[in-house]
Amino acid sequence: MTKAEPETDCHPRDQLRRAISIVWPVLFCLWFFSFDLPNNRPATRWRIWPAIPFELMDLVDPPVVPNALPWSWLYLGQRIPFLAVATVIWLGAVCLGRMELRSLRICSALDRTERLFLSGCLGLSTLSLLVLGLGLLGLLSPWPTLLLIIGAVIVEGWLTWNDARNLNPIRPPAIDAKQWLPIIAWPVIILFTGCLLLGAMSPQTDFDVIEYHLGGPKEWYLQGRISRLPHNVYTSFPFLTEMLLLSGMVCYGDWEWGALAGQAVIAGFAPLTALGLYSFAKRWFSASAGWLAVIVWLTTPWVYRISIIAYAEGGLACYLLATLTVVLRILWSSDSDSENESVPLHGLCGLLAGSAMACKYTGLVSVVIPAAVLLLVSLIRQVYLAQASRASCMNLLKSLAVFSTGVGIAIGPWLIKNTVETGNPVFPLAYSLFGGEGRDQQMNEQWKQGHSRRYSGLQERLLDLPVKLTDVVANNDWHSALMFAFAPLALLASWRRKVWLVWGFIAWQFLTWFLLTHQIDRFYVPMFPAVALLAGVGASYLISFTAGRVLCSVAMALCIAFNVWIMQNIGGFNAGRTDLRAAAMLVVSPSLQWINDEIAAGRLPQDTKVLCVGEAALFHAKFPYVYNTVFDRSLFESWFAERTDEGLRLRSADQIRATLKDHGITHLLVNWAEILRYREPGSYGYTDFAHPDRLQELQKAGLIGPALPLPDRVTFAPASPKKQQQVKDWAPGLGVSLADQPGYRSVQIFPVR
User: Which of 185, 189, 460, 685 could form a disulfide with 455 if both were Cys (CB 3.0 to 4.6 A apart)?
Assistant: First the structure.
């Protein structure tokens, strides 16, 4: 293993490298902290520094805040059941993954940390497919799932015990890290992992999470099976992480509180990625680089944010790193590995790359394709060096076939499911190629417009490139200065070939985000494990000499303190030590909470079933409902409208009444705020049929009654001058004022007659 440069090296070239390694982090940090917080303007990073000491003291001794949620250390006991369920799921997943590694016969080639990391990755992917299978069979209940998990634990436990009895234990290689690094790293690991787990075991507030990441699994849990949800197009995505959320619901036996257990499961991707960073860096760089990479990764606000909000990016980031780990192993060990080891490694790489795509479709271009290209180039090189012998050509084809099979095993079930349900394996994508049941060209154009960044020409694209590069590097609320302050320094260390390959991988991730997505900021987060890896390598070079060690220590201490402030204040909702039931009440939208309360109090009938128009974030609703997302066919239009030569008009009263009766609809909820948001220029668009005038027509026809008298906190929304003008132009009747504050009616609820 290559060691860090010695302190005594005073060659002029090395002096220049050390000078650069000192100057770059300082200049970068000055530039980094000069930016505003774009998601929380007008706050600036420089203005935060004076508040940091007081915020850190408040973490130790929280102030008394009037009307705040009740909190106590005793409330941590409420989280124990969710953490216990998550632990059982994780244990089962690791055992499943370990058995897969055994079947590939490559355990002996891995050290202890590598085996644990890859076992976790493989096991979580396998568990998600098993939950999918149980759901398709209509077996979404606790006992089938728990029996699978417990069975995996028993089998792997017996195999491990048998190995320990019959074989000499494999000793892990000696760690060459500085003795003080683990002492610093472990408290950071424990503290930040504990914080993100507490955040993950909190009720969710994010729109996308409520709409489909949790909303889809909730519907399947209540159905007791997995089936197509034609009203929620997002649930046709590959759902690796969402199956883990569903496993939490199923094992806990409740969709609402079981979701917290599932959220804790997918939050575990963050420490699992940290383990992968350590094992990766230890093998190819140094253990010091591994410890430093772990610190950089876990203290990054983005890692905290994607962990406590149930996004899929945490899983995608983990599988990207795992794939890169195996790719590097194949590229740099191909000359010494036997065919018996090389071929299984290609299979393992395929399983991991396919799992990345099973998290998100984008994993195809960000992970599967670059991994396949790198492996293909390596195999062709081996064939060329072997002078294209028959045996070498067969080994190339065999390795490619095994890689492709691995990808197919991981992502194939999702593609087959979509093909059976819609006729399109990548539904709702590639509509022009495959079509898709329930879709038409207009809906496809709406989807493409909403999920792509359109440029007027090459010049605009080129002008936007440095802006987006700046956004990825520094101009975002949840970045850590440590990432790019240290990552470029990896080029100064002695592992340049491997470093350049990782940088190339990062560049590919950026380009695919820039060119192929609608450039939402969290979509580039999966590249950050690779950046953290290089940051660890760069920091390990920095600590190889005294001045660098001082700079590295100061920079880490200051930036971690700053990152803690960001996590605490704008990292996302973290219930922490508060009463979970009170926290759950806080995150529910006022309209849904009002209906929940009215039904519980008996003021609305127990058989209340609501048709929601414009409202799709319904996870917190405790009553039956019917809805559609903005990218699905409008149920309000489908049920209430008929097309004529003059356009859309209301169907007959008898037809509408029969439709509502057939579906058991008792109330109509219209979210005007969402409809107005969708109708803004550049937004997704919404059917013109959903209009206040249409509701008046329904009232005149005797189909619905007057809007229910809702409290102002439910129905009133303040409006900016721009929003006031939008309301005035589109539906002036919605405009109202409250205490001389201009606004509009954001939500209305109508009883069905």
Answer: 460
- The token pair at 602 is 């008996």
Rounded distance, CA 91 to CA 318, Å? 18
Q: Which amino acid is at 111?
A: D
Cα–Cα distance, 28 to 396 (Å, whole number): 45
Cα 624–Cα 626–Cα 629 angle in degrees, nearest 5 = 135
H helix runs in 386-527, sequence order: 390-422, 431-434, 441-450, 458-473, 481-486, 496-516
DSSP string, 685-709: ---TT--HHHHHHHHHTTSB-SPP-
Name the burial class of residue 152, with classes exposed (0-12), middle (13-18) and buried (19+) by CB atoms within 10 angstroms of its CB: buried
Mean pLDDT computed over 136-143: 94
User: In angstroms, rounded to a whole number, what is the distance separating the alpha carbons of residues 736 and 727?
Assistant: 10
φ, ψ of residue 122 to 5 degrees: the values are -65, -40
pLDDT digits (tens, 9 = 90+) for 434-492: 999 999 999 999 998 888 877 777 788 888 999 999 999 999 999 999 999 999 999 99
- For residues 721 and 741, give the distance between their C-alpha atoms in angstroms, rounded to a whole number: 11
601 backbone dihedrals φ, ψ, rounded to 5°: -85, -5
Nearest alpha-carbon partner for 314 in 96, 123, 528: 528
**Is beta strand 625-626 parallel, antiparallel or unpaired with respect to 610-613?**
parallel
- Average pLDDT of the residues of the chain: 91
How crowded is the C-beta side of 439, counted as CA atoms within 13 Å?
Answer: 27
Residues 6 or more apart whose Cβ sits within 8 Å of residue 269: 124, 241, 307, 314, 315, 317, 318
Cβ atoms of 408 and 402 closer than 8 Å: no
